[in-house]
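$ ./design --mode recover --in tokens.txt
reading tokens...
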């Protein structure tokens, strides 16, 4: 009997917790509705044909955007309507009940008309292609991470969180080749593309060899470090920014770890190009023959003077 009472009491407590959670969620939604209703009561609206509206509060006129798409963020709204994603901070102050990272469908976002660049509704296919002020980085090299990309383009690896917010569909822990990462112009320190050598420092997938002579051949480097000159094609594929037929002094050649057989550097006196030349034949010096006097040589010598 006591066991049953304990079970009933546990079920009752769990039920109360669930009801409280639901009530809390409903309370938050109610606050949002109350805030929007109060705002609408204070403002005089002129409805437009697409469902958005203008209103005036004091001396400032506002435009109301109604969220339609599940992917919308306050940065998206600011970029589309004001032309600057950094205006999301101003919109956040005016819209305290709106989640800046994910706006709930049906929510209303208040935008000062003084910031507006367009009244056209945010389109469904709005993406990085519409964000002209954004820089687009395409992941190319093994070793790239969001913190490395943030460090190179913005000057601080700590900005990876801001990049993650600007790229809500991207998994920040799984950066893959081909991923396009959007970097807000306000954060950019450089537009120079992230070089391979920077990414290579953060991965064990590559071995870096620095070309010492202009006439070095990629097949010779492949032969020396991988044991097979036929790996030239694989190495060339791993170095798309290099001309495999003309390596210059100072070029860095990245050799995939799976191909590597040795890490011993090429000696300065023996450049890789020397491997393609046939070894010079060392002249064979014939030992000098020591003449040994033969007793029979007298038989073939000059004639003796006749006796007088």
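writing sequence...
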């Amino acid at each position: 009997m006591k066991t049953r009472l304990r079970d009933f009491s546990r079920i009752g407590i769990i039920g109360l917790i669930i009801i409280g959670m639901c009530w809390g969620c409903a309370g938050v939604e109610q606050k949002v509705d109350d805030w929007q209703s109060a705002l609408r009561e204070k403002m005089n609206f002129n409805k437009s044909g697409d469902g958005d509206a203008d209103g005036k509060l004091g001396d400032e006129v506002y435009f109301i955007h109604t969220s339609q798409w599940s992917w919308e963020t306050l940065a998206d709204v600011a970029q589309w309507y004001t032309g600057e994603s950094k205006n999301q901070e101003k919109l956040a102050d005016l819209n305290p009940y709106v989640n800046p990272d994910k706006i709930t469908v049906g929510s209303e976002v208040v935008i000062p008309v003084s910031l507006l660049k367009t009244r056209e509704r945010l389109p469904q296919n709005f993406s990085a292609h519409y964000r002209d002020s954004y820089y687009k980085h395409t992941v190319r090299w093994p070793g790239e991470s969001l913190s490395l990309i943030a460090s190179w383009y913005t000057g601080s690896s700590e900005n990876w969180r801001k990049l993650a917010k600007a790229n809500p569909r991207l998994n920040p822990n799984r950066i893959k080749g081909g991923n396009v990462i959007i970097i807000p112009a306000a954060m950019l320190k450089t537009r120079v593309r992230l070089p391979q050598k920077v990414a290579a420092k953060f991965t064990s997938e590559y071995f870096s060899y620095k070309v010492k002579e202009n006439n070095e051949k990629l097949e010779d480097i492949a032969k020396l470090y991988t044991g097979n000159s036929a790996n030239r094609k694989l190495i060339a594929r791993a170095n798309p920014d290099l001309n495999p037929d003309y390596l210059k002094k100072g070029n860095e050649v990245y050799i995939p770890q799976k191909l590597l057989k040795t890490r011993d550097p090429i000696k300065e006196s023996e450049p890789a190009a020397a491997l393609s030349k046939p070894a010079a034949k060392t002249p064979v010096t014939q030992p000098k023959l020591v003449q040994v006097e033969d007793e029979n040589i007298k038989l073939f010598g000059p004639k003796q003077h006749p006796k007088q």
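exit 0
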